[in-house]
Amino acid sequence: MSKIDDERGVVGERRWLWPSFALPGILWLIVLFVTPLYAILAMAMGVSDPIFGDTLPVWNPLRWNTSTFVEVLGELFTGQLGVVFLRTLVYVVVATALSLLIGYPVAYYVARHAGRYRVLLLMLIIAPFWINYLMRMLAWVNLLTTDGYVNQILMFVGALDAPREWLVGKHETVVLGLVYGYVPFLILPLFAALDRIDQRVIEAARDLGASPAQAFLRVTLPLSSQGVLAGCVIIMLPMFGDYYTATLLSGSPKTNMISKLIEQNINASSGGSTGAALTIVLMVFVGLLMTYYLYSVARATREARS
Amino acid sequence: MSAQANTTSGKSFLGRLQTLWSNPWGKPRFLVLFTWAYVLWSLVPVAIAVLFGFNAGRSRSTWQGFSLRWYYQDPDLSVLHDPSLREALIQSLKLAGLTMLIATPLGVALAIGLARWSGWGARPSNFLMLFPLVTPEIVMGVALFLVFVYLFGFVQLGTQAQLLGHVTFTVSYVVIIVRGRLFAVGREYEEAAMDLGASQWQAIRMVLLPMLTPAIWASLMIAFAISIDDFVITAFLMGDQSSATIPVKLYSAARAAPSPALNALASILLFASMLAITVAILVMGRYRKKEGTQGSAVEDFARLDL
Q1: Tens digits of per-residue pLDDT, A119-128?
Q2: Residue A270 — φ and ψ, nearest 5°?
Q3: What is the ipTM of this complex?
Q4: Which residues in chain B have Cβ-Cβ distances shorter than 8 Å to A30?
Q5: A201, B91, B137, B143: least CB-packed within 10 angstroms?
Q6: Considering the entire predicted model, what is its pTM?
Q7: 3-class DSSP state for residue A302?
Q8: Which CATH number fits domain A79-267: 1.10.3720.10, 3.50.50.60, 2.40.160.100, 2.60.40.1120?
């Protein structure tokens, strides 16, 4: 008789044991991740307080007030907001393209040809991950000041006649900052993808008569395309949410990115609703990017299976 | 083939340099140069910034001799004696320490739960755990700010809110690290222990947890490093200047009031996170050696896809 009871006991225990391990973490994420995301929505659909003039969130979806949201969307397609959004897009796309141009050769070399320097190079490439982003920007602020090393060197080699003001509203400085800041995050997924490629596949292509360039273009590059995509998405997501790089390296409204507007609005007493609506626009945009990425990963997996 | 490889790797460093110099555009040589140039570009600016933390003078572009003035000797302006810099350092260490102590147990339990639980809630929970990793920080910052201001009014902006926020975005990293280890060890050892008469709890406590030790150490260190590095969420949840951390201080002072003391403060942050990561890599490396696993811990970190 006890045997059956025992089994039931074990089954019952197993059933509740693992979910109860996960429970505290899940509750934490529901209270402090899901609820806050809903708060953005409630704030974007908020109403302004008749007495103090600041916006208050509306928690009940039936009483949402969409006027701010509609206003923000309108501005996005026609007004000042559209300019900032377009600028953000251009910065992110240019910075991602440059990062890819820099990151691919580096990842390729470390993954496939570095030999005995492989571990050393990997350590050096991972190092920027653990150096604070703002410290890395501070380093460039130091270098790019009017009497900094960059101007000194450029004047020494004769590229400049007079010191250039790099840190005041220069697009190229912001893009440089973005590339410098995010390129390490692109290199690692690229490295992982290139490292996975079986050397024998490339050798087979060479044996079958492909030149080194052909083998690269028709074997290595396509096999690493998932890594390229992953790397680009990984750096584009935080770049869209970046407001500090432009502020530190340029500090001018001429180079503001969309997230700067979010930060300014959220911290202003009456801008809460606008800030929240902008955050939703950003989330939708980033969400589309993410969906495209997941879709293409799923497609690649499907193709690999068949 | 292998003999040839041996002779090339056996060549002296100078010999290599000479062949490199004679034809820098040879096929792998361009990659070698490019890769090392990238590494220099990515690390030298930071090295210069660290160096100027030790400058004897006030300048951040002219070297005036070595001193520890900006660390502790200067009676007013050094990190030790300027109250705002010192408090930022203390706040950073406090937040990172507490975050590490809360996020690690929460994340370890969540990882075990999610890896073993196969009921209906497992998939959505897993999805929920991954979500914070792909959410831009500014979205989380805005979300948490709104929820603490308008819904959980009992949580003060400042240290309390910052701690809750930090734990929320670190937990998922802990889960990813521990989950990797859980998949690597499998369930066999636990099942063997239970076949030999251990209860489920005993199997967890005496078999599973000891096997997770390296991952738990790595999680503690990485939670610390991620937390001490954070800027966006910390800044959004800051009540007043007293809860500013080092990255917040770097952001607000890099343009407004730069001094070598700021470089010194940033360097301390750099040393702290480097220390945490080195400990994590060493601990992982020691366990790998004990278990006779191939490869290096550095490569594991490279594949972690943080």
Answers
A1: 889 889 988 8
A2: -105, 5
A3: 0.86
A4: 128
A5: A201
A6: 0.85
A7: helix
A8: 1.10.3720.10
